[in-house]
Amino acid sequence: MTTSLIPAPARADQALPPGLTAEDIDRIVAAVAAEHASSTLAVYASAWRIFARWCAGRGMQALPADSATVCAYLTDRAHQGKSYATLDLACAAIRYEHLRTALPNPIADATVGRVRRGLRRIIGVAPRRQSRPLLGEDICCIVEVIDAGTTTGVRDRALILLGFASALRRPELAALTLADLAFEPGGILVTVRRSKTDPDGRGQVIAAAAGAGRATDPVEAVRAWLQVRGTRPGALFTRVAADGTAGPEALSGRTICRVVHDRARDAGVPADRVSTHSLRAGHATTAAMAGVPLDRIAAQTRHRDLATLVHHHIRPIEEMTNTSSRALGL
């Protein structure tokens, strides 16, 4: 049994409250483990191992760590040229490990906070390399060159058109099942079981409207894929075997990203910054260019922070439209 995930007072090697059973502990472990996505926990674990090795090499204690140890680690890593994002991740991992084991959190120390703010000023926070939005015209070019005579082509066409029309995130696309689709007059209702803005899994329903042209209609594309895939329950977008048979295994988020990138490249669309997020970003940007109000775009993309939506998708369009360089006669 993995009891290390249970806060210290409830570990199996300590006195447990009367009546607490092994099944209780297992359920507690499962609930605590579900607090963070498995991918997040893996990143934390990697960052923690780096910190623990550094402490061992210095003869310092990693768990529990005191604030001086954390400050020394952060400044040393900064001296090695690590980015502020890397230091921020280290702090998150150290905090998580201490809270997980019910030990005092050194990241909450005032001195650690001052050091972090100082390093932020010294190092600076470089802007993230943003995915290139795939606009409506890009999507048309991409699906035009996909060979709809192959199983993979039918799948990829449906994936790209539905991803663009729905503005889903990569993990949401990867997690879709057949049961999440409801075909309605005028489009598809997509149920998102769990998402970044709905971590508790209450569920959100997103509409993907039918297209004006058959070649770029996400509804027709998904129907065509289901004719090939079949109606068995399970993952919506699945791997295709060498013989062209659609299997039951779901495409991973990484594979979906590669599909979008490769299909864009094959269509001659600049693909150096194309990822699955390009579909979502492209939806927002294309809608903004068409004059769709901000609240309608935000309702579709489910942005919690409208400033993010404006900064990445609305403002660039306004700047290009309103720039005084248009009056220079060049």
UniProtKB/TrEMBL annotation:
InterPro entries attached to this UniProt entry: DNA_brk_join_enz, Integrase-like_cat_sf, Integrase_catalytic, Integrase_recombinase_N, Phage_Integrase-like_Recomb
Record-linked Pfam families: Phage_integrase
GO BP annotation list: DNA integration; DNA recombination
GO molecular function terms attached to this record: DNA binding
Domain of life: Bacteria
Domain Tyr recombinase: 129-326
Keyword DNA-binding: yes
Record's keyword terms, sorted: DNA recombination, DNA-binding
PANTHER family named in the record: DNA ADENINE METHYLTRANSFERASE, PHAGE_INTEGRASE DOMAIN-CONTAINING PROTEIN
Protein name: Tyrosine-type recombinase/integrase
Originating species: Antribacter soli
